[in-house]
Design brief:
By secondary structure, this protein is α+β, with helices and mostly antiparallel strands. The chain has one domain: Cytochrome P450 (Cytochrome p450, Orthogonal Bundle). About 50% of the residues lie in helices and about 10% in strands. The strands form three sheets. The protein has a five-stranded mixed sheet with strand order 1-2-8-5-3, with helices on one face. The longest helix is centred in the middle third of the chain and has 27 residues.
């Protein structure tokens, strides 16, 4: 049976350009119920902004992943639900406040800024591997390994494990980034969670007897000091940090670079004025965000944008649509690295503002700075097709082939 999808959110071709659909959504149905996902879609900037701050919208929503499935399948998925239900992302106060307060200590602006020399060195190391080559595949050779190595080093994970960690993360993304996941996606997500938990359980046991100076040791030590991190909370937090610490940054770098290369005048602007880079990264986050929407659940009967929402209803805050709202942004379809009104919704607002925002920004800034400096004539590979991950929630490229051009001396 054909399902109603007026804005083509589920159409594979829309992965190339979901934004024309969002523009129509903003004009025609800024708050509407989308049957295939069983949720209200909220797209206007003002409504999304208010939604992030509204305590009547709950973040505890892990039941969505097995909605509509048989009791037998639900029981099989219990380890998945148990892990995700202890992610700070899916918690509300007071549990969210306690867990977030503990993790925040590793992500203060001062702590993150102290990582800049190491991140800069890693970017140079990854680009050195391309020295003498005519071409580079940016996702697999740069945008993917950089944040995986960074969060891995923060947690104290062996560098050689990054490929399997990335594989598990991709399986998990297929579950979390979908409006209503299929049984196949839930099963893959379950397998990823089981792999993650077995992996981190071994490392946590090691850190209990042989603590180091890494973030994982800090989390284990904090638990020992009485901050009440249970074994499950440790496993869930490690999984969340590993997943969140690289998946979105990879896509920020890939999406941002593609946007720049499709707008060569913006590339030249940044070459001439590299001091614009921090602003440019914010514009990349607005223009083609790595995360397109997030889910909430109504705690009570309420109203959003003039639409009655019932207690228990799912609500999806469509950040990518809000970032293109002409009521908030002048010429929202235009990429402008000098844009001034840059309060985008990509990283959220309020208590669930993205924990790793400063780290992701820094990784992107250092990556673009090095590319602009070392490969000023970088171009998209002529004739190359650009294919997107088949995921409505996480927007990223499967590959980004470029021609490097002469390296600056």
């Amino acid at each position: 049976m054909e399902v109603a999808d007026p804005f083509e959110l589920m159409h594979p071709e829309r992965r190339k350009d979901p934004y024309s659909g969002y523009a129509r959504m903003l004009r025609e149905a800024p708050v509407h119920f989308f049957e295939p996902w069983g949720a209200w879609l909220v797209s206007r900037y003002a409504d999304v902004n208010a939604g992030f701050r509204d305590m009547r919208l709950l973040s505890a929503r892990t039941g969505q992943f097995s909605a509509g499935m048989s009791e037998e399948v639900r029981k099989m998925m219990e380890p998945l639900a148990r892990n995700l239900s202890s992610w700070a992302l899916f918690l509300d106060a007071p549990s969210h406040t306690r867990l977030r307060g503990l993790i925040n200590k590793a992500f203060t602006p001062r702590m993150v800024e102290a990582l800049r020399p190491r991140i800069r060195a890693l970017v140079e190391e990854l680009l050195d591997a391309a020295r003498g080559k005519e071409r580079m595949e940016v996702i697999s050779e740069l945008a993917n390994p950089l944040p995986v190595i960074v969060i891995g080093e923060m947690l104290g994970l062996p560098r050689e494990d990054r490929h399997r960690l990335k594989r598990w993360s991709d399986q998990l993304a297929g579950l979390i980034g979908t409006g209503r996941p299929t049984q196949e996606q839930v099963t893959a997500g379950l397998n990823a969670i089981l792999e993650f938990e077995a992996y981190f359980r071994m490392l946590i046991a090691q850190r209990r007897t042989q603590p180091g100076t890494d973030l994982l040791s800090g989390l284990v030590h904090a638990e020992e000091q009485g901050n009440l991190l249970s074994e499950q909370e440790l496993l869930s937090t490690c999984t969340m940090l590993l997943f969140g610490g690289h998946e979105t940054t990879t896509n920020l770098i890939g999406n941002g670079l593609l946007a720049l290369l499709r707008h060569p005048e913006q590339w030249e602007l940044l070459r001439a004025s590299p001091e614009l880079l921090p602003n440019a990264v914010e514009e990349f986050l607005r223009y083609d965000p790595p995360v397109q929407f997030t889910n909430r659940e109504a705690k009570v009967d309420m109203e959003i944008g003039g639409q009655a929402i019932r207690k228990g209803d799912r609500v999806m805050l469509m950040m990518a649509a809000a970032n293109r709202d002409p009521a908030q942004f002048k010429d929202p379809e235009k990429l402008d690295v000098r844009r001034e009104e840059l309060r985008h919704m990509t990283l959220g607002m309020g208590p669930h503002y993205c924990l790793g925002a400063a780290l992701g920004r820094m990784e992107a800034q250092e990556t673009f700075a090095a590319l602009l400096r070392r490969f000023p004539h970088l171009k998209l590979e002529p004739g190359a097709t650009v294919d997107w991950i088949d995921n409505a929630g996480f927007r990223g490229l499967l590959a980004l082939p470029v021609v490097l051009g002469a390296e600056a001396r």
